[in-house]
Amino acid sequence: MFSTLLYHGIIPADDIDAAKDSLLKAVQNGPSGHFNTGIFGTKYVLETLSENTFSENVFNIINSTAFPGWGFMIDNGATTIWETWKESDNTYSNCHPMFGTVTEWFYRWLAGIRPDPDYPGFKKFILGPSTPEGLEFVNCTYYSPFGKIVSNWKKVQPGTVQYEITIPAKSSADLILPIRQSQKITIKSNNRNFNPEKTERLQTGNFELGEGEYLITVSSNN
């Protein structure tokens, strides 16, 4: 319930923090520390947990092989998504999009490609990738109305992550990169108009980029 209310912005501002805490506790107290929601609740939980807590929480749930969950399906021989969390014996389908919203989570939160509601159609969009522990790289391409959006990242060594980003012509992105105070950002680009020294908030990891291809490195200052 809390995930649905948070997702749709129904909860009053003064109660949002309490709702976030309640959502996290409900998931932690769920079966195997997961959730056993249905077709709609699963989408809301994935989104609101990522938006309001840490995407690492969601990654650990998705990656778990405990019941109930996608990892449990795979660990029990599934090559398609089941209609129910438990494998069915001819009552329900074992090839069904019931819990397929998890694929949306991959590009929205691991690659970080999300629409900006103020700019429909990806004229401007959000690019906020997650780099959870236990995952070494992500390669993702999304075809927007303005062209191909690319959000790839890889951990090249401890404390260093490289991002390969493509922003289509006539569009822009608000980047939200995970960065610590002990790290720095360097950028190479084929955009001749791009000047890192004139990019506001660059070293905060939260800044805007225009069209072009970029190689961004987040590394230790040492």
Give an overview in words.
The chain is of the alpha+beta class. It folds into two domains: 2-104, no CATH class; 118-220, Maltose phosphorylase, domain 3. It is built from six helices and ten strands; from the N terminus they run ααααααββββββββββ. It has helices at 2-7, 16-28, 39-52, 55-63, 70-75, 102-110; strands at 113-115, 124-127, 137-138, 141-144, 147-157, 160-167, 172-176, 183-189, 206-209, 212-220. A hairpin with an 8-residue loop joins strand 1 (113-115) and strand 2. The chain starts with a helix and ends with a strand. The model has no long low-confidence stretch (mean pLDDT 92).
SSE pattern: HHHHHHEEEEEEEEEE
Mean pLDDT: 92
The coarse silhouette is: globular
The number of domains is 2
Radius of gyration: 19 Å
Strand content: 25-35%
